Amino acid sequence: MKYMLIAGARPNFMKIASIMSAIDSHNQSPDGTDKPINQLLVHTGQHYDRAMSETFFDDLNIPRSDINLGVGSLSHAEQTAEIMKRFEPVVMSEQPDVLIVVGDVNSTIACALVASKITYPKNGNQKKRRPLIAHVEAGLRSFDRTMPEEINRILTDAISDFLFVTEKSAEENLQREGIAKEKIHFVGNTMIDTLIKHREKAKESGILDHLGLKKDSSIEKSRPADDYCVLTLHRPNNVDNKEIFTGILEALSIIAKQIPIIFPVHPRTMNRIREFGFENHFVFQTHGSQFTICNSRINCIEPLGYLDFLCLMSNAGLVLTDSGGMQEETTVLGIPCVTLRQNTERPVTVTHGTNMIVGNEKENIVNAALSQLEKFSPSGGANNQELRSSIPPLWDGQAGKRIINILADHICDHSRNN
Ligand code: UD1
What is the pTM for the complete model shown? Predict the structure, then answer.
């Protein structure tokens, strides 16, 4: 059996790491020795900076991709089209049995769409016409079609054969859209598999020292300060419009008076900061030199690798973000999160987790950040512990294994029936 996995952009790497490791475990099991899975990793090259791509391969021990399509940054249409053009000959020549796509980025829909329409040349009495398509993290819906990711999610789900979901709401969304029940599998969260696996290792990261975030007390020398906020921002809705970005900056400068902000800056956001002339709102730090946190300021650093970022986030007092994955990671880590978006496709992070959805207006951001800080402070009340430990169902580190077991069983049945 040949499984082809697709990765393109930063949040994909954590998800495929769990699946690739589950395939390795399958191959080492008695079942796998009988029916080994040959895995092939295709990197579309949607993200290509070392800090946005290669460093994740090192941190997560993912083997280098077998094929890199080298697509790079383009408009949505050009990027999607270019991935499709470059992917078609690859899938035709490799003829995988299964194509695994993850998440909701342009690479996800581009590769799924190619695979859904191809026909392998007839070879003897070979039955397969195209690869079976498995979508990992299916069914999530923000119900906001101005988000390119929402379009990618709906379309990928519509053409996939296996829909692996992370939370119950996703199952309900898919059924409402008329997807057959037998295609939907509630398996848990591969991004959380990777977090659980690397949590201990992340504690060895030197990032807190490097950023000067360890308390300099002789009693608790190695205890992290726990009194900084981590910020990430990259959604076009937040950073591409100067007026909206200005409002967010005003909110951040109020919050920074209460708690210093560390901001690993996404390249898209860095481009906007330069374009809008916002540099003077920030303190910039380049890699290599020792960092001193400036209180009352927004401290910018370059994007971090997986282990450094996990360490930084795990020890933060607060996270402000517009990322999808970080809403889930903070829920599992029990770190208060304020999401600068109007909606979330991951409602379980609000019902079970630590997440608050506040949009991008100044007052709402400030009020939410201050209330989260209050609620989660050491004197924040009896519910504190309860909130911190509420992990969504099946987010237990086993999602990758469940996915591979389901695929292996199904394909075994499928070949018996043919
Ligand atoms: C993409 C995903 C988004 C995901 C995000 C994580 C889509 C539609 N969007 O958004 O869902 O949350 O990745 O980061 O697929 N750039 C670089 N170097 C890089 C990558 C990007 O400089 O390695 C810059 C380029 O200027 C590029 C811009 O960032 O034009 C945006 O990159 P792109 O991949 O188009 O979208 P993201 O905003 O990263």
Answer: 0.94
**Residue whose CA lies nearest to ligand 1 atom number 4:** 105
**Rounded Cα–Cα distance for residues 283 and 296 (Å):** 10
Among 325, 364, 365, which Cα is nearest to 346's? Answer: 325
First-residue to last-residue Cα distance in the chain: 15
Distance 15 CA to ligand 1 centre (A): 17
Give residue-wise pLDDT tens across range 353-390.
999 999 999 999 999 999 998 887 766 554 555 555 58
Report the amino acid identity of residue 48.
Y
Contact of 387 with 336, CB cutoff 8 Å: no
Token representation of residue 225: 């300060």
Q: Answer yes or no: are the C-beta atoms of 101 and 136 closer than 8 Å.
A: yes
Does any ligand 1 atom lie closer than 6 A to the CB of residue 325? no
Distance 219 CA to ligand 1 centre (A): 44
| 174-217 confidence digits (pLDDT tens) | 999 999 999 999 999 999 999 999 999 999 999 998 888 875 55
Report CA(127)–ligand 1 centroid distance (Å). 39
Q: In this structure, are residues 139 and 173 in contact, taking their beta carbons and an 8 Å threshold?
A: yes
Q: How far apart are CA 360 and CA 340, in angstroms?
A: 5
Crossing angle of helices 362-375/242-255, nearest 10°? 30
Considering Cα of 301, then 307, then 312, then 317, what sign does the dihedral take? positive
Are 163 and 120 in contact by the 8 Å Cβ rule? The answer is: no
**Ligand 1 and 130: CB distance under 6 A:** no
For 186, the enclosing helix (H) or strand (E) is strand 184-186
